[in-house]
TrEMBL record:
A GO cellular-component term linked to this record: membrane
Domain Myotubularin phosphatase: 231-610
Compartment(s) of residence: Membrane
Chain segments carrying region Disordered: 691-711
Organism for this UniProt entry: Caenorhabditis briggsae
Family: Belongs to the protein-tyrosine phosphatase family. Non-receptor class myotubularin subfamily.
Protein name (database record): phosphatidylinositol-3,5-bisphosphate 3-phosphatase
Positions annotated as active site in the UniProt record: 444
Main location: membrane
Chain sites annotated for binding substrate: 383-384, 444-450
Family matches, as InterPro entries: Myotubularin, Myotubularin-like_Pase_dom, PH-GRAM_MTMR6-9, PH-like_dom_sf, Prot-tyrosine_phosphatase-like, Tyr_Pase_AS, Tyr_Pase_cat, Znf_FYVE
EC number in record: 3.1.3.95
Keyword Coiled coil appears in the UniProt entry: yes
Amino acid sequence: MSATTPAVSTTPLTAWWNNMTLSGIYPSISTTSTTPSTASSSWSSHFIFGGNPSTAANTPQSTVPPSALSSGYTEDITVAGSLLKDKITGLMDTLMGRESVHAGCGYGEDGRIAMMVDKVYLVDRLGSHENLVGTVHVTTTHIIFRAENGSKELWLATGLIASVERGTLTAAGCQLVIRCKHFQVITLLLSRDKSCQDLYETLQRAAKPVSVNVSELLAFENREPVDDARGWKRLDWPAEMARQGVLASQNPKWTQSGINEGFTICDTYPDKLWFPTAASTSVLLGSCKFRSRGRLPVLTYFHRQTEAALCRCAQPLTGFSARCVEDEKLMELVGKANPNSENLLLVDTRPRVNAMVNKVQGKGFEDERNYSNMRFHFFDIENIHVMRASQARLLDAVTKCRDVAEYWKTLESSGWLKHLRAVVECSLFLAESISRGTSCVVHCSDGWDRTSQVVAMCQLLLDPYYRTIHGFQILIEKDWLGFGHKFDDRCGHVGALNDEAGKEISPIFSQWLDCVWQIMQQKPRAFQFNERYLIEIHEHVYSCQFGTFVGNCDKDRRDLNLSKRTKSLWTFMDARHDDYMNPFYSPTAHVALLDLDTRAARFSVWTGMYNRFDGGLQPRERLEDLTMTAMEHVGVLESHVAQLRTRLAELKSQQQQLSTSATTPTNMIDSGMSSATDELKNLSISHPLDPLLNTSTSSSSTSRLLERATSQESGVMDSSLYYPDEALTRYSLKWQPLRGADRCSNPTCRGEFSSTIERRIHCHLCGMIFCRRCLKSTPDERERVCDKCKSD
């Protein structure tokens, strides 16, 4: 207690105040009756308040028994009393010049803690694990569940909350179901209806904030200095175009234009754009005015082998009869930029009916009669509203259905696999056309949803570079972030002002990642990355922990100064590069993936994504992880064998030096040096690991040799000959199996692995499994060791 405590205790107002208390003053107080010691522990949690535990433990507690409180007090009077006490507490703390112990326990005005509720049950909906009782903490950025026995600690970023559902009150209590954007389902059971309602309202505010200020996202909560130039400069537009071969020829048909510098003509396009060299500025400006949102046809991929181009744009503002000479000229120049074929294929990814409806709004699609050498093709990929409803039905199938018949019926009615098939078929059609030498122009309505899906997928099929870890990031930066997919709107990063804004949410990017996974199932050797890589990207698209996917376009990200205020996801993933490696990857196995099987039977539900946190439905061991672990273990042992061989060569070299030395006194040889030299000469080790395999013979022989070589009697004290037996048993020959490894092996950590997707990492010395926090790399970064092995 501070030095002012005696003065405070003698004040009549303070004495009255210390005896004044009301049950439920803060939402963070337990709703059940507690003993004074229990209440003290609830208030003094260092985890909650971040203050001094000893100071918090001395917080004055009530001396009034619960029976002394009048039963006639209504809940409104209790709330009013709580508010009055809050005000008086703040006033007294201000007057006495001390910091309030309970500062930050309100709803976010002065602190980070919004709510705390104890005696909450975490229910396993599948029944594969026992229910846990613990405490729920709601902060401005996270929801945290801590089990009372310390067996589980669950953290969830508030940005990942998709919806909160409240069940009816039953004899067991009231149930809350939290559905997350990365498809985790958390079920909480509370015994008191009032507590459930308070927690429900708090979670609703956390999931759907009233504010629409992007700067309040978790990415901006970073308190560390941001120096992440490598991550924020992942895409270099001129370098990427040069890699594709745009500037390879003597007379390039495509050139960079500065027409959109400063985002002057189209704020949802990047500031660097490539057009046919023959296109004049007037042609570009005329086409820009004729396209929705000013998104005129621009180059996104150049196929080096056939010199065919893949361009993207938005729908034209044709209405029923409008046309634009400049737009028709630009389309003609796109076709002529291909020296092998002037024919141009224009693909509209929408159903024809949808495109006809847009004509009523003054938009629509191109008239083939007005464009020379152009063929038109529709693909029936549905709009964002259909995709949102489809995924909702899919989630009902994977989380709510209780029998197989109901599951298949709900899955069929969702149409999700049918939509995946439509995206893959359209992408394959584009890839085949470009590989045959025909340039293609693609659009949907505004050119940032379905267009991004099929254009990016087409490049993934054609170019093996985009199937690497680094190339996949370049592809996302270019065709999703650069060309203006509206991540803020589609992912619901900020609160919606009205229902119309809420209808902008749609799983377009999630669907594309699902399509990538479907192709990986058919061509597992064609991708450098594994399933974990896709899932990690998907989670951080919604978590807003990094600034990479914040904003609707490059202009938004530049206006928000994200490169100086937030960290890049790519830098975070670079540090975990080995987590995403596919052990079956073969760079030369596939070039273009044009032999895909698009039959309906080849598309399946991605359980690794949608049932990621359902341990009872996931395999206990993943083939990719087993293979990578075996390869890593073999690599560690081979490295150890190489060290032993190096040491053996040193010993043999020293043996030769000793045997050829002419200055060795005779009495030293007689005193035992000769026998040591003879044993060095006669000792034969066929393999560096033989001492480990035959300890009864070679270990004893080696130990006797080293004894004599370093003994005082021999007169030789060469420390370089000393090779302790511990060095031979330094590396574990048997590693802890992945199956059943649910927790970190560090006794002071015991962190839980939330799912089988989460990486289990072995210590290279003891072979036990640890979380990433408990392993450190050696200075040469060749080994990962735990704290215990490092100290030993």
